[in-house]
Amino acid sequence: MTTITVDSRGTACPGPITDLIRAYRKAANGDVIELLATDVGIKSDAKAWCDRTKNELVNITESDGTYKTVIKIVSKRENRDT
Amino acid sequence: MKKITVIGAGTGGAIVANSLARNLKKEIQKGQVQVTVFDGAKYHEFQPAYLGVAFRGSNKNAIKRPIRSLLHPDVKLINENCSEINLANEFVVGEKPGQRIDFDYIVIALGCKPDPGQIPGLTEANLDFHTNAQASSIVYDRISKFKGGKIVTGITGLPYKCPPSPNESTFLLHEFFTKKGIRDRVKLSFITPYLRPYPAEPISEVIEPLYKERNIETVLGFNVDSVDPVKKKVFSVEGESVSYDELFLVPPHATPNVIRKAEFSDDEGWVVVDKRDLHVKNYDYAFAIGDNTNLPISKAGVEAHLEGIVVANNISAEIKGISERYLFTGRFQCTMETGFHKATFVVGTYQKPVKKIYPSFANYVKKKIMSKIYWNAELGKCEWLFKLNFGKDYYDVIRDGKTAAPAARAIPN
User: Fold this and answer.
1) Domains of chain A from N-terminus onward
2) What is the C-alpha end-to-end distance of chain B, expressed in Å?
C-alpha cells in the first residue's frame, strides 16, 4: 500500500478534482490518496467522486483553511479483460 | 554576446522569439545578442482550426504557414529538433550528434501532443481531430459517410490541451448531423472523468442544458482504461463499458521525449516552473512557457502567448539593465463553440475563478476574428489588441526587481 499525497492548495475548481483524477490513474487498489486543497468545493466534489467511482472516502478534515481529503482506492478492476 | 535559445516555434515560441527580437533590436544589430529558434517542423498549424477541418470540412491547407514566415527577420531559425537540453551546463544538442550549441538564456516552448499509446486500444480505435490538419480531415471524411449509429466523444486522460475541445466536438457533430437531416439516426454520447460535462462548474451549468436539449448522453465520472477495437467498447478502470460505432476521443497528452524524462521535469514529464515569472525550478536563466509546463491552468494558445510576453520582457530587461519585471497573471481564455454560430468563453486567472458566460453570436465572432488575426499576432503586430482585451490580466509589473526577477544565476545543487 502506498500513500499518494497531492498538493492542490491555491488552485480553484476544477484544480483539486483534476489532481485527484490524475493521482487515481496512477494508484492501485489499497493505495491511499491524501489530497490537500484550499478550495472548499472539494468537500462535495470528493464525496460525489467517491460515490460515483465506488472508492472509499476515509475522511475530510480542515485545518487553517486547508482541506485534507483521504481516499482509499478500492474499485479498480485488477485485470484487463477486454 | 548573449545567446538566447528558444526551443519550439509554436504559438509561445514564436511570440517569445519575435518579442525578444523587437525588444533587443539594437543589441542584435550591434552583435551583442543573438536569438536562435530550434524547430524541426516546416510548417506551423493554427490548432484551434482543427475542429473546423474535422467537423465542418474546412480546407486543411489553409490553416498552416511556413515557420520561417512567422519569425522576425533577426531571429535565426535552426530547422531541426533538439535531442538534448542540458540546463546545468547551458547547452543544447541538435539532431546531429556532437552539434552542441551554448546558450546564456533558454526558453522551452515545445508544447505537448496527444499520446494515445497510454490507453491500450485507443490508437487502433480512435479517429483524432486533435493532432494535425491531416488527421482532422480524415474525421470529416468519416462523418460524411456515416449513415447512423452511436458516436462517442470525450476525455480519456488528464491533462489535455484546449479543454473545451471535447465538448466542442460533440456540439459540432450535433450541428453537422442536424444540418444533414439524420440527427435522429445518430446517438451522441460524451464521456468524461469529471462529474459534470465541463470541469469548471460555472461553465458546466451553462452547457449542461444544451446536452439535455440536444439529446446528447453524458457519461460522467468515467475513467477510461482501455478500448477494444474489435468489440467496439471503451472500458473504465472500474470495469464499466460504453459501446460505440465511431470514436472521436481526445487522447491523453504528453511532452516530447527530450523533456519528458529530463531532470527539470516532474514525474509525468511536465517542466516545473515558477507560476509567476516562469523560470524553470533551480535555473534562473531558463524558462518554460505554454503547454509543456506543469502550471495548474488550461493548456491553450492565449496562455502561451501571455507567458511569452512576460519571459521576453524579463530576459530583455536583464540584458538591458532595466529593473522592471513582468509577472504572469495566470490568465486563461478558451473559446467553446456550442454550434450554430454561438460560442462561450472560459476565462479566469490565478486569482479570478471562471464565471458564467452564456453562448452568443458575439462570442462566436470574436473567435473568428482571432482566427483571422492569428498569423499577424504571432509576428507581434496585434499586441495592442491583446493588451486592450486582457487589460489588467495582460501581466503584472514589479519595479523593485527583488521579488521575481531572473537575476543572478543559480547553479543547481
Assistant:
1) 3-72 (3.30.110.40)
2) 27
